[in-house]
Every structure is written in structure tokens, then in C-alpha cells.
Design brief:
The structure holds 2 protein chains of 2 kinds.
Chain A lengths: L1 H9 L1 H31 L5 H49 L5 H4 L1 H13 L3 H27 L5 H29 L3 H15 L1 H9 L3 H25 L1 H28 L4 H13 L7 H23 L24 E8 L9 E8 L4 E5 L6 H8 L7 E6 L8 H4 L2 E4 L10 H5 L6 H10 L3 H7 L17 H17 L4 E5 L7 H14 L4 E5 L3 H4 L4 E6 L4 E6 L1 H7 L2 H10 L5
Parallel strand pairs in A: 3-7, 3-8, 5-6, 6-7
Antiparallel strand pairs in A: 1-2, 1-4, 8-9
Chain B lengths: L1 H10 L1 H18 L1 H14 L2 H50 L4 H4 L1 H12 L3 H29 L3 H44 L1 H9 L3 H54 L4 H51 L13 E9 L9 E9 L3 E6 L5 H8 L7 E6 L2 E2 L5 H6 L1 E4 L10 H6 L9 H10 L3 H5 L21 H12 L7 E5 L7 H13 L6 E5 L3 H4 L4 E6 L2 E6 L1 H7 L2 H11 L3
Parallel strand pairs in B: 3-8, 3-9, 6-7, 7-8
Antiparallel strand pairs in B: 1-2, 1-4, 4-5, 9-10
Classes of the chains: A alpha/beta, B alpha/beta.
Bound molecules: adenosine-5'-diphosphate (2 copies) and magnesium ion (2 copies).
């Protein structure tokens, strides 16, 4: 079973202990059945010594049961922890392992990955992790019962067990139809319903929901979307119930036949009282092959989640249930500025009909500071993502120091970047600047260079930057931007040769922006810098400015500030718009 | 709890009845030791008829049990989903209906709210637990009856169970403590997992080479999240083990006693078989009472959280009693009097003693460094927080006396950290004025006002395109494009009294910004106040009034020219930015 293999991978030791306990418990139960039969059977004979001997056996077995169960509960909790650590790691790996990010923003695969993540948050997932032992134990005890019955008529226990198995199969396939369907057919509709609900409850959308009075409307759409998805599902589930009931009748006949046989054998004298009591218990114990309640349901659901996860992983070329071999962590050896070349690069997002960039050529010599300007949607951020090797270009080549960042980890690590929507980790300030190990010097220096020293003085390194945690704090947009800047500067200190800033000062105030650019040249000496900004007052200081036009026109202007002003083209026009107020 | 049941019955009475099928199955299962006893007695007497009757009963208790279970489970799961949804919808509505934001930002409130907010089906699960509890209890009662028919001495065992009920209090305390201790690391786990599958975070993770560090953090977070549970399980299972050992030790003594009587012939073999058979069941009786109490407490806790949310909503509603409707148009404007504000458990004020006049018909620019309190002021004007001191007067009427929903319906604008509504483009923008949500013309007009037509023109299915890449056929937008849609949303309402635009152009290019501001200047209407937060002085200069905030205080107010002439803070900042263009 899939889940067992994952458990085994997650923690061989705890799984083995849990398995040993489960097996022992099943053995105890089987022996108890025999013991009780012998004990009762010895009563009419009034051979008191024998009765007391079996009594003792029953007593010991009765006392052993609960001790085993308690130990199993404690072991299961640990096993489940190891399992969850492992599975969440597998999920995380799905996100972070592939070299590019195409799988995360192509609707098809992104929605399947999202569905898996959501399924791991369902109650049944954590319950299902522990449920396996609640399933295996009884099944093993069922095997014990077969063993007890075999010497009598070998085919009877097999037939009865088979009929229980049949019921269980039909029942489980009904359940998994009902729940796999939940994940697949109605998955999108249900997810949409959840999304609508999250708009109502999440902090991110809270202000707009209140300002525009969206509560009633969103609630209504949420309700109707949910009902639409579920009504269909309920119908399917109900219609799957027929075969289950049919299987139950087959099982009833088999079990009835088995009891009748025992009765006949007793009257014929071939089976003793002890045998009859033992066998009656054993036949009932064969129920353990049947349906096993909520534990079974939870297990079925978590198994199907695991299967979906394994599928997603295999599509991405990852091993289904184990982590991929660790990639060689490449440390950046050189500290020199890097050279960047894009040759005839074309790229379009799969979900878009038009290309974001077409036939773009740009060479940036090592150490140059270049600014890219252009209207929203011109493809500036896309260009940067290509430069980081996050997508592979449809045509053309991207090279950082002669190597392809989409293939060569070392080349990618030569780039340090602040994206427009940089990450706000719910972690301490320290980790938000450098996630991983860094010396205090580097941390301090980077934050100082980014103009965030006041932040440090106010909060200290160890304050979590989210109010969702005790003692945590929130930062304003501008404060966050400084943290992000510090993050990039720390990467430069760590050996990156290109510093890319995608609209770094959008949320900075005037003084902070001025302060930043005053220090910028000094801080970035020795690296190639690429700056994307709409603040032309900052852009003008770059060695070189390129204007990227939208609609695949590519680079339409290229030169220094003075050259472009003389050219009197688009750049000059944009600059004029912003400067007009200040021209006195 | 009664509420959960009542809801269950209300949403679907028949299904609720079907759920009881499962209970019936459980009762039949509990009776099987009795049938085995009868079967054994038949075997002893060589009575085939008695044995066959007992066998028939046993078949009933297995086959019928399974069939009833299937029908019951189907009903129960459906019921659980339905009830869960009913509560989920109520929770979402309650959360969204609370006019202020404290409950969504403050850690101490979030701890309570989170389980309800994030676990869909938290209360549907409660119903499930409730039905399971009913089932186990029905089973337990049947077992007790079987035991009593076998031998009165078995009742002593039941008395032992009482001891167990006493210790149950500890278990519950442990479990509750564990649940609370696990909340924060659980939240962190979710957050980090979300980062691994988000494209934006994915990009950064890769470039900075955070892959393995992020995974390490997730592992740590999961361990931290599970640790309290493991610890409470340890304690609970030790306690349960001790209880069971005590139980079975007593049971063994009683069995011995019965055996002696059986040998003496005062106890029948049938009774002894039933007694032995019912032991396991009896043992689970006390534990099922315990787990029933346990699950009911858990359910109770979730219900209590729900009630807390309701009470909190009522409390907030009670504090804000204003019912007056805002005027049709502003005569005088908005006056801010000695306004102070401090966030939840923050150590210092974010706004201190602010007094301001925002005259009707004016465009007011709010400038100041990051963290000066600009966004806070904007949110206070929208009534998203209650001032800690002072008040806001709308044409002389205290904001606290206004009907907040009414007031907001006469406001519009865009916030600094705007939401990204992953709906169709039409609705994402149209949500700004629900009355014309699906009217493409109005949305196109708003897009025009926000200089955002080209965002939609570039979409594969125009206004009908779904935004957000995790949706089938969905499309992602760049940060600036999302911002323009947010502005367009703010342009949907036709005649707001107050328009707030909090750094609306931070991510926009020069040309778009320029054309936007030309439109803002046109937006100057009698009877309306436009409040603009921006760092771009080229925009500020066009405002009628400039307000300079610094560390939560107003330090300068006046028209652009006047402030420049004053050579103060504002002139200083202006000079700083202007230098870049000369
Ligand atoms: N993940 C994505 N999926 C589909 N289209 C995208 C995605 N990201 C950006 N785009 C589109 O590609 C074009 C270029 O976007 P972008 O590079 O972000 O522009 P800029 O940074 O210049 O504002 C835009 O039309 C944008 O909507
Ligand atoms: N939700 C919050 N909880 C606690 N403090 C906050 C919160 N939001 C903002 N602050 C603090 O309040 C002050 C003012 O913030 P804000 O109004 O966002 O500034 P601005 O918009 O002028 O940049 C800052 O010091 C900020 O850290
Ligand atoms: Mg961009
Ligand atoms: Mg702000």
C-alpha cells in the first residue's frame, strides 16, 4: 500500500515499532479467541485445573491488550509526525524543485498542485496518517481468525473472508469515487467556492470587502457555487450505493451458511463446545476484512491525496514518494561583476496568445549599470525572469557570464534580484534579510545600505514580521521594500555579480528614495546592475537606459540619459512629463 | 452544540434520520456477545434450532450492520458537508460583516478565529463527531444492557468507569493546551507551504537558492506544529493504559469469581460466555464515555469559538451604534478633530492628535515618509478602525453616529495594499459598484477613468477573462496591471462623497501616471473630497491642499505654493525630488 511505503520512507524506525506492536496486538487477540474457547469448553467437564490454567491465559491476554494499545497510540503520534514532515517536504519539493516556475503559473498544473495542497489541509489527511494502524491491526487479527478456522474446513473461512473483502472493496471504491471525484471533477468548482469564502475571511481583501460592501454578494456567490458543485457529487454518491447493498446480501448468505455448518457439526458431534465458541468468535472476527468505519474513510481519502501528489511529482520528473537526490549546492566562487547577454529572445506565456517578448537582443557588459523603462506590461519583469532562468525562452539564448541560468545553477546564483512582488516571510527580521546562515556583519551592513537601520533599532533582529504571531509586527510597504533591498544586497555580498531591482522604490518615500540612490552607486560598485523603475529621476543616473516598448516592439531606444534626451523620443517625453512640475 | 444539531435537522431532516441507521447498526453489533452466548448454550445442549436462531441473529448483526453503515455514512458525510457549509457560510459572513479589522490583524483574536476561518468544515466536523458520539453511546448502552443480563457483578466494572470519567478532565486540559500551542506553528507551516507553490515566491526562492532552506524551515515548522500533539498523546495514552489495566485486573478477579460459581453450577455457561464476550465491549464503554466527553468538549470548543465570533460581532456592532445616513453631497466637508490612533497592542500611537479640515470640493494630497501614518488615516476615514481618541466629522456629524455601511457606500477608492480579486476581469473591476457589477459599459468607463483599458485589451477573452493562473483558462497580470484594476474598481462608483487613493500610482509608468492625474484633476467635483496619498510631487502640486504627516502628526498644511514658500519640511522634500529632474 502506498501509504505504508511513504511511512516507511518517512521513518523506518517508528514504522517498524508500530508494525511490531500492531502484529503483537493482533496475535494477542487471536490467542484470546482460542483461550476463551478452551476456557469455556473446559467448564462442563469440571476438570478444574484445566479451567484455571486457561483462565490464567485469558487473564494475561486481557491485560496485555490495553498496554499494547497505549504504546501503539504513542508510537502512532510520532510516526504521524515523521510522515507529515515527509509529505509536506514532498509537497514543498513539488513547488521548489523544478528549475523554472512554469509549473506554478500554468493554469493546468498550477490548479492540480493547488488541489493537492488543499487536500493536505483537510481533516482526513492528518487523521488518515494514523488511521493505517487502525486498519492493519484488525486485518491482521482477521488473518488470525482464518488461521483458527483453517483446520476445521479450510474453505469456509476463505469464503467468508472473501465475502467480507468483497463488501469492503465495493464500499471503498464507492468512497474513493465519492472523494476522488471531490478532488477532480468538482475540484475546480469547490476550489472556487473556497476562494470566494477566503475573500470574505482573509485580511488581504478585508478592506475592499468592507469599502465596497461586498459581503452579501460574495456570500451569495459562495453559496451557489458550493451547492452547484456538491449537488452533482451527492447524486453520484447515492447511485453508487446500490452495489454496496448487493454485496452485503452476498455476505449475509455466506456468514449464515458458515454458522449453520458449525451448528450441524456440533449436533453431529464433530465439533466440541470449545471449538464452537472459538469458531463463532472467529467467524465474527472475519468482519475485520470488511468495512472499517471512519478510519477506513480517512485512509482512503489520504491515500487518494497521496496518489494525486505522486502523479504531480512524476509529471515533474520527481520520484513519487521519496525526495529527489539533493542537487549539488553550488556556492558562488567568483565575486566579479557578471556579463549578461540576451540574443534574439522570444517568449510567450502559455496562457497568452501574444508574445510578451519577441526577438529581443540586449548585451550588458560586466559592471555596467543599466536601467530598463517602459509602460506597464511591456515585458520588463518577464525579461528579468528569463534572465534568472525561471522560464526557458521559446527562441534565442540567455547567458550570464556565458552560462545559461535556466540550466546552470551557478549562473543563476550570480543574479541577485528584488522582484516587484518580493516575498514577505512570516519569519524574524533576520530571516527576512538572509534566509539561511549569515554573519551579523553581512546582515547589519546590508540593512544599513538599504536604509533600514531604523527598523532594526525599533524591532531587533528577532521580531517576526507578521502580526499573526505573538510579539510579531507588521511593516509598512516602504519598510518592507527596504528589507527586500537588504536581502538583495546581502546576496551581492555573498557573491552575486548582477543586481536586478524591479521597481525597488515604488513604495519608498522621497527621502528614502533619495537616500537609497545616493548610496546606490557606492553599494553596487563592482556588480552589474539592472534597474527597472518608473522614477526617471533615479533612472537617469544609470550608465545606460533602454526603453522597452510593449507589443513585441522590443527595445526602441538605447543610450545614456543625455543621449536619449537629445534624441527627443519616448524617454524624453516621459521624463518631460515627470519633470514639468519641477521646472521653475 | 444544540445549534449544530438544530442546523443539521433544519438543513435536511430526512438525511438526519438516515444518519441514525448507523446507530442501529452499532446496537446490533453490541448485541453479538449475547447471540454467541445463546449459540454456545445451544451447542452445549446440542440444540440445532437454538443455534440456527442465534446464527441468524449474528448474521443480522454483521450484514445488517454493514448495510446500515453504508447508508448511514452516506447520509452522515453529506450531512456533515451540508452543515459544515452552512456554518462556513455563516462564519465567513460574520467575519466579513464586522466593520472593523482588529479581529483579522491582531494575534490574540486570530488565534481564536483561525480554526474557524481556515478549516473549512470545522463545524461540519463537529456534527460528524456528534453523530459518532451518538453511535458510540448507543453502542455503550447496548453493551451495558447485555452485561446486566449476563451477571450483576459486571456492574462493578461499570462503577470503575466512573474513576475514568474523573481523570478525563486532565485529558481534556492537555488536549486543549496542545491545540492552542500548535496554532502558531500550524499557521507558519501553511504560510511556508503556500510560498513554495506560489509563482512569485517560487521565483525568489530559486534565484536566492532558498530551496533547501525553505524545505528545512517547513520541516521544523511541522515538527513544531506536531510536538504539542505528540506530548498530549503520550500523557493521554499513559493515562488510558493505566485505567485499562485497572479495569481488566478487576475484570479478571470478577471472572474468577464467576468461574468458581460456574463450577459450582450457580452460574450458567451461557452467562459466562456472554460475560467474557462483553468484557472488551465493557472496557470500551468507559473509554467511549470518555471519548464522547472529549469529542463533545472539542465540539464545544469549536462551537464556543463560533459563539465568541458572534459575540464579538455583536460587541463591535454595539460599540458602533450610529444609524444616521450620510448626506447626499458634502456641504462643508470632512473635519478631523484631535484624532489619535494606536494599533492593537502596539507600544506607540500611529496617529497623534490630528486636526484637519478637508473642505468639500477639494483635492487634498497627503504626503509624508513611510510609516508616517498616511494609510492609517485613510483607513480611519473609512471606519475600518475606531479612533483611540478624537473624532471625524462628516458635515458636522460624527462618523461614529453614521451608519457605517451607508457611509462606505458613499466612499470609494483604492488602498495601498489592494486586493487581487481572482474573478473575471469584468467582476474584479465591477465589484467596485455591485449595482452595475455585470454591466460591461460601466466597467469599460471605469477602466478608462483609471487609464487601464490596455490591461483588459491585452487579455485573451477581454472582460470575460478569468484572472489568476490557478484557474482553468486563467491569466496572470503584472503588479502594475493589478494596481490599475484596483484603481478602476475605485472608479466604479459614480458620486462618492469621499474618494481615497492611497499611493495609487506607485507601480505605474510615467505616461499612465500622468494621464491618471489629469483625470483626478477632472475628478474635482463640488460636494466631494478627494484624498490622495502619493510621493510624486508632480501630482501633489496640483492639489488644493497639501497635508504633511510626520511620525503620526500633522506638521504642515496649506496649498503647494504656500508650503514651498515656507521653506519647511515639504519644501525640503520637494527640492529633494526636483533635484532629480534638473
Ligand atoms: N504568469 C503570467 N502568465 C500570463 N501572462 C503573464 C504572466 N506574467 C505576466 N504576463 C503578461 O505578460 C506581459 C508582460 O508582463 P510583465 O513582464 O510583468 O510587464 P512589466 O513588468 O513590463 O509591467 C503582460 O501583458 C502581462 O499581463
Ligand atoms: N496592522 C498594523 N498593526 C500594527 N502596527 C501597524 C499596522 N499597520 C501599520 N502599523 C504601524 O503604524 C505606523 C503607520 O503606518 P502607515 O499608516 O501604514 O504608514 P504610511 O502609510 O504613512 O507609510 C507605522 O509605524 C506602522 O509600522
Ligand atoms: Mg513588472
Ligand atoms: Mg501607506
Amino acid at each position: 500500500m502506498n501509504q505504508l511505503r511513504v511511512l516507511w520512507r518517512a521513518s523506518p524506525v517508528w514504522s517498524a515499532v508500530a508494525l511490531a506492536l500492531t502484529v503483537t496486538e493482533a496475535a494477542v487477540r487471536t490467542l484470546l479467541m482460542v483461550g476463551i474457547g478452551q476456557f469455556v469448553g473446559s467448564l462442563p467437564a469440571s476438570a478444574s485445573a484445566r479451567t484455571w490454567r486457561w483462565f490464567l491465559v485469558v487473564a494475561v491476554l486481557l491485560l496485555a491488550g490495553p498496554i499494547l494499545q497505549s504504546s501503539l497510540a504513542a508510537v502512532t503520534a510520532r510516526c504521524t509526525t515523521a510522515y507529515l514532515v515527509h509529505v509536506f517536504d514532498l509537497v514543498a519539493e513539488v513547488g521548489v524543485h523544478p528549475r523554472g516556475i512554469g509549473h506554478l503559473d500554468t493554469p493546468d498544473s498550477a490548479s492540480r498542485i493547488r488541489a493537492v495542497v488543499d487536500a493536505t489541509r483537510d481533516w482526513s489527511f492528518v487523521t488518515g496518517a494514523g488511521a493505517i494502524w487502525l486498519i492493519i491491526g484488525p486485518r491482521l487479527a482477521g488473518l488470525g481468525a482464518i488461521a483458527v478456522l483453517l483446520p476445521w474446513r479450510w474453505w469456509v473461512p476463505l469464503a467468508v473472508a472473501a465475502s467480507f473483502l468483497l463488501v469492503s472493496r465495493v464500499f471503498m471504491s464507492w468512497i474513493s469515487l465519492a472523494f476522488d471525484k471531490l478532488l477532480e471533477t468538482t475540484g475546480d468548482a469547490r476550489r472556487r467556492a473556497s476562494y470566494l469564502r477566503s475573500l470574505l475571511t482573509r485580511t488581504e481583501s478585508a478592506k475592499e470587502v468592507r469599502l465596497f460592501g461586498l459581503t452579501d454578494w460574495l456570500s451569495d456567490v459562495y453559496r451557489s457555487t458550493w451547492y452547484e458543485a456538491m449537488t452533482e457529487l451527492w447524486r453520484e454518491r447515492r447511485s453508487g450505493l446500490g452495489p454496496v447493498l448487493l454485496a452485503c446480501s452476498v455476505m449475509a448468505l455466506t456468514v449464515g451458511g458458515a454458522f449453520a455448518l458449525i451448528g450441524l457439526d456440533v449436533t453431529a458431534g464433530t465439533v466440541s463446545l470449545a471449538g464452537a465458541v472459538t469458531m463463532a468468535q472467529a467467524i465474527l472476527r472475519l468482519q475485520n476484512f470488511g468495512v472499517l468505519g471512519d478510519a477506513g474513510t480517512a485512509l482512503a481519502r489520504s491515500t487518494s491525496t497521496l496518489r494525486a501528489l505522486a502523479n504531480v511529482r512524476q509529471e515533474l520528473g520527481l520520484p513519487a514518494i521519496g525526495p529527489a537526490a539533493a542537487q549539488a549546492e553550488s556556492s558562488r566562487s567568483t565575486h566579479a561583476a557578471a556579463e549578461v547577454r540576451l540574443d534574439g529572445v522570444s517568449f510567450g506565456y502559455p496562457s497568452r496568445a501574444t508574445q510578451a517578448l519577441s526577438n529581443l537582443t540586449l548585451q550588458i557588459p560586466a559592471g555596467q549599470s543599466i536601467a530598463i523603462v517602459g509602460v506597464n506590461g511591456a515585458g520588463k519583469s518577464t525579461l528579468i525572469k528569463l534572465l534568472c532562468g525561471l522560464y526557458e525562452p521559446d527562441q534565442g539564448t540567455v547567458r550570464v557570464d556565458g552560462a545559461d541560468p535556466a540550466v546552470d545553477e551557478a549562473a543563476r546564483r550570480r543574479v541577485a534580484v528584488i522582484f516587484q512582488d518580493f516575498v514577505r516571510y512570516h519569519l524574524p527580521l533576520r530571516d527576512n534579510v538572509v534566509l539561511g546562515t549569515a554573519t551579523d556583519d553581512v546582515l547589519q551592513q546590508s540593512l544599513t545600505d538599504a536604509g533600514g537601520l531604523a527598523l532594526l533599532e525599533r524591532h531587533g533582529w528577532d521580531t517576526v514580521l507578521s502580526t499573526e504571531y505573538d510579539g510579531g509586527t507588521d511593516l509598512s510597504g516602504g519598510q518592507w521594500q527596504r528589507v527586500a533591498l537588504a536581502r538583495a544586497l546581502a546576496a551581492v555580498a555573498g557573491g552575486a555579480g548582477v543586481l536586478v531591482l524591479d521597481e525597488p522604490t515604488a513604495a519608498l518615500d522621497v527621502r528614502a528614495e533619495a537616500a537609497l540612490f545616493e548610496r546606490f552607486l557606492e553599494v553596487t560598485r563592482g556588480v552589474t546592475t539592472i534597474l527597472v523603475s518608473h522614477r526617471l529621476s533615479s533612472v537617469r543616473h544609470a550608465d545606460r537606459i533602454v526603453v522597452l516598448a510593449s507589443g513585441g516592439e522590443g527595445i526602441v531606444e538605447d543610450g545614456s540619459h543625455d543621449e536619449l534626451m537629445r534624441l527627443d523620443g519616448r524617454y524624453a517625453e516621459m521624463f518631460g512629463l515627470q519633470a514639468r512640475r519641477f521646472a521653475q | 452544540m444544540a445549534r449544530v444539531l438544530a442546523t443539521a435537522v433544519r438543513v435536511s431532516p430526512w438525511q438526519s434520520l438516515l444518519c441514525l441507521f448507523e446507530t442501529l447498526g452499532k446496537v446490533l453489533a453490541a448485541l453479538s456477545p449475547l447471540f454467541i452466548g445463546v449459540f454456545a448454550a445451544g451447542a452445549l445442549k446440542q440444540d440445532l434450532r437454538q443455534m440456527l436462531c442465534a446464527a441468524a441473529a449474528l448474521v443480522g448483526s454483521t450484514a445488517a450492520n454493514t448495510a446500515l453503515q453504508a447508508v448511514g455514512v452516506n447520509a452522515r458525510v453529506r450531512q456533515m458537508e451540508l452543515v459544515g457549509h452552512t456554518f462556513d457560510a455563516q462564519i465567513a459572513e460574520l467575519t466579513a460583516r464586522i466593520p472593523t479589522l482588529d479581529h483579522l490583524e491582531n494575534a490574540s483574536y486570530l488565534d481564536k478565529l483561525q480554526i474557524l476561518r481556515d478549516n473549512e468544515n470545522a463545524l461540519g466536523g463537529a456534527l460528524n463527531t456528534l453523530i459518532n458520539t451518538i453511535n458510540t453511546l448507543a453502542y455503550a448502552v447496548s453493551v451495558l444492557l447485555v452485561a446486566v443480563t449476563a451477571d450483576w457483578r459486571l456492574l462493578i466494572l461499570i462503577a470503575l468507569g466512573a474513576a475514568r470519567l474523573l481523570t478525563a478532565r486532565w485529558s481534556m486540559r492537555w488536549e486543549k493546551a496542545a491545540e492552542e500551542a500548535a496554532a502558531a506553528p500550524g499557521r507558519l507551516t501553511r504560510h511556508l507551504i503556500d510560498l513554495t507553490v506560489s509563482p512569485a515566491a517560487g521565483a525568489e526562492t530559486r534565484v536566492f537558492g532558498h530551496q533547501s532552506e525553505l524545505r528545512r524551515r517547513i520541516r521544523l515548522a511541522v515538527v513544531g506544529w506536531r510536538r504539542p500533539t505528540v506530548r498530549s498523546t503520550d500523557r493521554n495514552s499513559a493515562l488510558a493504559g493505566a485505567n485499562s489495566v485497572l479495569f481488566f485486573a478487576t475484570a479478571v478477579v470478577l471472572l474468577g469469581w464467576m468461574t468458581r460459581d460456574a463450577m459450582a453450577g450457580t452460574v450458567s455457561v451461557q452467562s459466562l460466555v456472554v460475560a467474557v464476550g462483553v468484557l472488551q465491549g465493557l472496557q470500551s464503554v468507559s473509554s467511549s464515555f470518555v471519548s464522547a466527553v472529549g469529542s463533545l468538549t472539542k465540539v464545544g470548543r469549536n462551537c464556543a469559538r463560533f459563539l465568541w465570533l458572534r459575540d464579538y460581532a455583536d460587541e463591535v456592532a454595539a460599540v458602533h451604534t450610529g444609524r444616521r445616513q450620510p448626506p447626499d453631497r458634502l456641504r462643508d466637508g470632512i473635519r478631523i478633530e484631535r484624532l489619535s490612533f494606536r494599533y492593537g497592542d502596539s507600544a506607540r500611537d500611529s496617529l497623534t492628535d490630528i486636526s484637519l479640515d478637508l473642505p468639500a470640493g477639494s483635492v487634498v494630497a497627503l504626503v509624508g515618509e513611510n510609516g508616517a501614518g498616511k494609510s492609517t488615516l485613510v483607513k480611519l476615514l473609512a471606519g475600518l478602525y475606531r479612533p483611540t481618541g478624537g473624532r471625524v466629522l462628516v458635515d458636522g456629524v460624527d462618523l461614529a453616529d453614521l451608519d457605517l455601511i451607508g457611509w462606505r457606500s458613499r466612499m470609494s477608492g483604492a488602498f495601498q495594499d489592494h486586493a487581487r480579486f481572482e474573478l473575471t476581469a469584468q467582476r474584479s473591476v465591477g465589484a467596485g459598484d455591485l449595482a452595475v457589477l455585470d454591466d460591461p459599459e460601466r466597467v469599460l468607463r471605469a477602466l478608462h477613468d483609471a487609464a487601464a483599458e490596455d490591461v483588459v485589451n491585452a487579455l485573451p477573452a477581454g472582460l470575460g477573462t478569468r484572472l489568476g493562473t490557478t484557474w482553468p483558462g486563467g491569466v496572470d497580470l503584472s503588479g502594475g496591471q493589478w494596481q490599475r484594476l484596483a484603481i478602476a474598481r475605485g472608479m466604479m462608483r459614480q458620486s462618492p462623497l469621499l474618494m481615497v487613493l492611497d499611493e495609487p500610482t506607485a507601480a505605474l509608468d510615467a505616461a499612465t501616471e500622468h494621464s491618471l492625474f489629469e483625470r483626478y484633476a477632472e475628478a474635482r467635483r463640488p460636494g466631494r473630497v478627494t484624498l490622495l496619498v502619493t510621493h510624486r510631487f508632480s501630482t501633489v502640486a496640483a492639489a488644493d491642499l497639501v497635508v504633511v504627516l510626520d511620525q503620526g502628526r500633522v506638521i504642515e498644511v496649506g496649498p503647494h505654493a504656500e508650503l514651498l514658500a515656507n521653506q519647511g519640511h515639504y519644501a525640503n522634500l520637494y527640492e529633494l525630488q526636483g533635484r532629480g529632474y534638473r
